[in-house]
Design brief:
17 helices, about 75% helix
Length: about 450
């Protein structure tokens, strides 16, 4: 059907369509200005540092001596160093890919996945992995916070009656029923800064207090398991514990989204500067804790090295309190992208109106859910290994490499091609083996556990 133009003015039907499109674009902008990830873009480069430290250095560092005990000196040091190098490389890839399309920013992990794999397939590949990682971390941090509070209570009040772990998890969760209502990433920058300082503080206390204790008289460095099969499965668990320790990639694009960007000064510059500083801090936390903790306690070290220490009481109590303060910030860093996903789905797909009430309900339900699961399965070591292998290995070790190969298509057998394929192969092996070890560890620990104990 032919529609006549009059004096260059679109006919009413086309004008109506144009008005509708403008109205829809304005609506989408209002939604983006409300959502947690895209509502604020005025972060400085050092925000990247403490956000990344808070995201990465967490419960995992306390489990590194235990992972070393399951791997042994040689394999343990090798995996620790290789993981540091590989994850720094894959994190660099994520930072570079954030703005690889001129005029476009991939503010969320799944948006980059959709660009690499396709609109539908990218969602199917990335979103389940990211949700498992972020929800899994929040559950582990609920357990960590509860255990550390319990340990602090026992040390600070040694004559007090014991209190069940479940109650300490609920006490820890109560802080998140408040903090979870901070609207976006930049609004939690103060919480994240405190958490980053705490991580360096309790890591330093952990390894210095351990070193001061001295090597135990009956220390043994051999594999603790009695059978070959048990030793191999414990080895797999150790791999998962180290994989969990390098977990910041799942929120790196979301962190970079908060940094302002122009064609002359893209966000990747300040973001990378912050990442490098963060990785120096990570090394200062991880390597002393892992090596000193294993060196002093050998294969008798517990899955949380602070639990192996009894003296000096004030230092251990302080370290546990610092852990609580740190994982409060870490929980928020990993919860924010989940809030963003859920709130995006509700307002963009189901057309809910962006509101304080909607946000209040979504975030309280999420905190309550992670608290409930943490109370049911508070198995620190097993959870570290299982989530480390099942979800962290893909999103941290090899998915960035796969996306890099698909997008940039480096020449076959070039250095870039080989580097990425080596990371992919090692990451897949890590994912399979550590998931098996972590699941076995949870099953073993659950035998002597009663629900809501």
């Amino acid at each position: 059907m032919y529609i006549q133009m009059t004096d260059g003015v679109p006919p009413p039907l086309e004008q109506s369509s144009l008005d509708h499109r403008i109205e829809e674009l304005e609506r989408q902008k209002d939604i983006d200005d409300w959502l947690p990830i895209t509502s604020s873009r005025n972060a400085k480069w050092w925000y990247s540092t403490f956000h990344n430290v808070t995201a990465m250095v967490g419960a995992g560092v306390l489990g590194l001596p235990y992972s070393m005990a399951q791997l042994g000196w040689g394999p343990g040091i090798a995996v620790l160093i290789l993981s540091w190098i590989i994850t720094l490389y894959t994190l660099w890839q994520m930072v570079e890919m954030h703005e690889m399309v001129p005029g476009k920013r991939f503010d969320r992990y799944h948006e980059l996945g959709q660009f690499a794999f396709g609109e539908r397939l990218g969602l199917y590949i990335i979103v389940p992995q990211q949700i498992i990682v972020e929800v899994g971390v929040c559950i582990v941090y609920m357990v960590t916070g509860g255990q550390s509070l319990k340990k602090f209570h026992e040390l600070a009040c040694q004559d007090c009656s014991p209190i069940r772990l479940s109650f300490f998890v609920m006490i820890f969760a109560s802080s998140h029923f408040v903090l979870s209502h901070l609207p976006n990433f930049n609004s939690i920058s103060g919480v994240s800064l405190v958490a980053a300082v705490m991580s360096l503080s309790y890591s330093t206390i952990a390894w210095t207090a351990t070193a001061a204790k001295g090597v135990q008289e009956d220390v043994q460095y051999g594999y603790k398991s009695g059978t070959t099969a048990s030793t191999v499965l414990s080895f797999f668990t150790g791999l998962g514990g180290i994989a969990f320790a390098y977990a910041g990639h799942n929120v790196v694009l979301e962190i970079q989204a908060t940094i302002p960007s122009t064609p002359s000064t893209p966000s990747k510059g300040p973001m990378w500067r912050g990442v490098v500083v963060a990785y120096v801090v990570v090394a200062l936390c991880y390597f002393p804790v892992a090596l000193v903790g294993y060196g002093v306690f050998g294969n008798a070290v517990l899955d949380n090295v602070l639990m192996s220490l009894e003296t000096p009481v004030w230092a251990i109590a302080t370290a546990n309190l610092f852990v609580v303060m740190h994982v409060i910030g870490s929980y928020q860093i990993f919860a924010m992208p989940v809030f963003d996903m859920v709130e995006t789905f509700l307002v963009k797909k189901l057309n809910f109106k962006p509101s304080t009430i909607l946000r209040f309900i979504v975030r309280n339900v999420y905190v309550a859910l992670t608290m409930f699961i943490a109370i049911m399965i508070p198995f620190f070591g097993g959870l570290l290994a299982f989530f480390g292998g099942f979800a962290f290995a893909p999103t941290t070790y090899f998915l960035p490499c796969i996306m890099w190969l698909l997008i940039y298509k480096p020449k076959r057998f070039s250095l870039s091609w080989w580097t990425n394929w080596v990371c992919i192969v090692l990451g897949v092996i890590l994912m399979i083996l550590s998931s098996i070890g972590g699941l076995r560890q949870i099953i073993i620990q659950s035998k002597d556990y009663s629900l809501f104990s």
